[in-house]
Amino acid sequence: MQLVNINYFKLLMALSTALDLTGSGMMKHHVRVALIASRIAHKIGLDQDTVKRVVHASLLHDIGTITFTEKAKLEDFEAADTYSHCARGRWLLEFSPLLRGLAEIVHSHHDRWDGGNKTGLSGDDIPLASRIIHLADRVDVLINNSEYVLHQRKFIINKIIDLSGRVFDPYLVEVLLDLANQESFWLDLTSGMYEKLLPKEIRYSREKVSVQGLLSIGEVLARVIDSKSRFTHIHSRLVSKVALQMSKAAGFSPGHCQAVGAAGLLHDLGKLAVPEAVLEKPGPLTSKEYDIIKCHTYYTYRILEMVDGFEDIKCWASYHHEKLNGKGYPFGLEYKKLSDESRLMAVSDIFSALVEDRPYRLGLSRHKVEQILLEKVKEKELDGKWVSLLLDNYNEMYNLKDSCKTNENPIPF
Ligand SMILES: [Fe+2]
Ligand SMILES: [Fe+2]
Ligand SMILES: [Fe+2]
User: Fold this and answer.
1) Is 80 exceeded by the pLDDT of residue 149?
2) What pLDDT, on a 0 to 100 scale, did the predictor assign at position 287?
3) What is the DSSP string of 63-126?
4) From the CA of 30, which ligand is nearest?
5) Is 247 left (phi over 0), alpha (psi -120 to 50) or beta?
6) N or C: which terminus of the chain has fewer CB atoms within 10 Å of its end residue's CB?
7) Residue 218 falls inside a structural domain
8) Comparing 19-33, 94-108, 137-151, 213-227, which segment has the lowest mean pLDDT?
9) Average pLDDT for residues 331-342, to the nearest whole number?
């Protein structure tokens, strides 16, 4: 099994940043919940490994919340119907052997202490990590970013005390009250220095992770990205499969092919920052809307940049809208700066988009796809070498579409 040496914490931080991409201003929610949760976990004397698990689950706890509309609803302290995103979160995390251990924690992270939950759990039967995250999550939601935090702490604490023993575990509320006596607890939460503060809570070093494990995390992320729109629900997985198949056809080594496949899964990660209204528009985009779409590869780049060891994958994933003639986005790179892997990714992306259905058209015919790709070679947008390779293996590439339709989400977004 091929292993890679990465800082697992930085990888999770990058994922949590991706999950916080939103237009509604709840940036840094995951990392702030992780900070509160780790302080509670330490205070009650949990061991290092358990604190780590609490932090990891906190960093991903709202992974089942995909749309801006749903994210906005959860900002309401008394949000109704919190179960759907918990169930989706569990479903997503179970795809990855590396994240599976967090699935049940995420599933119960809105469970009330006094019961009546769709998970069927109450009181001490709710995983302790879930109870901690629930409390931390609601404290964070109560913080109003436009007001000085120490002027709000009384109000926040009173709200929490009021729900102790009903919504929240009363013992954990006591622990929180103790922590909340320190001004630094609150000031840390609004300091913006989370990347510095959180690693102080837990000891981390680079660890060996299998390439398969990384791919499985990519699979989870691909499902999150593709769930943003009904019309692109297989896109990331299809791009990944096409890119991997092209790498094989070009004779890349197995590890190299898998790395290209992982880049394919993550290529549209930054789409989490694009409103659904733009992604789902049933017609051509206006130039302003097109400008909004353009941020997605920028965010893919900035997020993958956070992970040591992802230097190549970052470029292969985020240059897929660059063009050989330098007229692509967001960096306007010319052919000299675009590696073979980035060029094949661009071809895989366009091919996949053309054969998939879109809000305003069905997947295109082979003749039309060939015509468009060859035109783009002529315009010096795509590399002719990779377009030829794809067209020479057209049926094989096209048939990959069917293999992406398995494991559909049981709880629609
Ligand atoms: Fe949540
Ligand atoms: Fe949350
Ligand atoms: Fe894209």
Assistant:
1) yes
2) 94
3) TT--SHHHHHHHTSTT-S--HHHHHHHHHHHTT-TTTGGGHHHHHTTT--TT---TT---GGGS
4) 2
5) alpha
6) N
7) no
8) 19-33
9) 96
Cα 86 to averaged position of ligand 3 atoms, centre (Å): 28
10 Å CB burial of residue 262 (0-12, 13-18, 19+) is buried
pLDDT score for 208: 75
Ligand nearest to the CA of 85: 1
Residue 211 located in a structural domain: no
Ligand 1 centre to CA of 224 (Å) is 15
Mean pLDDT of 200-211: 76
Determine the distance separating the centroid of ligand 3 and the alpha carbon of 341, expressed in angstroms: 15
Q: Give the helix ranges, DSSP H, for 143-234.
A: 153-162, 170-180, 183-189, 194-201, 211-226
- H or E stretch covering 209: strand 206-210
Q: Mean pLDDT in the chain?
A: 91
Please report which ligand is nearest the Cα atom of 89: 1
- Among the bound ligands, the one closest to the CA of 318: 3
142 and 92, same structural domain? Answer: yes
Return the closest-CA partner of residue 227 out of 74, 19, 401.
19
Q: Which residue range is the domain that position 8 belongs to?
A: 3-201
Average pLDDT over residues 304-317: 90
Contacts of 288 (CB under 8 A, 6+ apart): none
d(CA 111, CA 267): 34
Q: Are residues 260 and 150 in the same domain?
A: no
Distance 94 CA to ligand 2 centre (A): 19
pTM summary value: 0.90
* Percent of the chain with pLDDT strictly greater than 90: 68
Tell me, yes or no, whether 386 and 252 share the same domain.
yes
pLDDT digits (tens, 9 = 90+) for 279-304: 888 878 899 999 999 999 999 999 99
Distance 266 CA to ligand 3 centre (A): 10
In this structure, which ligand is nearest to the CA of 83? 1
Q: What is the DSSP string of 277-319?
A: HHHT-SSPPPHHHHHHHTHHHHHHHHHHTTSTT-HHHHHHHHT
d(CA 276, ligand 1 centre) in Å? 20
Q: Which ligand is nearest to the CA of 329?
A: 3
Asked whether residue 409 is domain-assigned, the answer is: no
Q: Taken in order 107, 112, 117, 122, is the CA torsion positive or negative? A: positive
